[in-house]
Design brief:
This protein has a single domain, classed as YaeB-like fold, CATH 3.30.2310. It is built from 2 helices and 5 strands; from the N terminus they run βααββββ. The protein is globular. Strands 1-5-4-3-2 form a 5-stranded mixed sheet. The longest helix has 16 residues. The N and C termini lie far apart (about 30 Å). Helix 1 packs antiparallel against helix 2.
């Protein structure tokens, strides 16, 4: 059974990465930067009622299924859910070389 109403927590790393992506996109278009950030945040919050809605993170070794990932606007977002918390771990551009962890 899926637990309901998970809280979303952004790690310091993921917050920094979101600020960096906003700053980078803002160089060309502050409006688009806001749009991308808001859509990423919205996509994370869709998992509040069903944290398993996105695919298992294929780069996480020994993933017990609690590490999930999705892509939005060429950014890959990785989160982990446990108990009643969805913890956003990283936000990276898909052109960056992925690494296993």
């Amino acid at each position: 059974m899926v637990e309901k109403n998970h809280a979303v927590v952004w790690t310091k790393r993921s917050q920094k990465q979101m600020r960096q992506l906003f700053k980078h996109i803002s160089k060309d278009s502050p409006k688009n930067a806001s749009k991308v950030v808001l859509e990423i945040v919205d996509t994370v919050h869709r998992a509040v009622n069903n944290p398993e809605m996105y695919v298992s993170d294929k780069y996480k070794t020994d993933n017990d299924g609690s590490y999930r990932a999705f892509e939005k606007h060429h950014y890959r977002v990785v989160y982990r859910f446990s108990k009643n918390v969805i913890r956003v771990l990283r936000v990276r551009h898909t052109s960056m070389e992925p690494f296993e962890y």
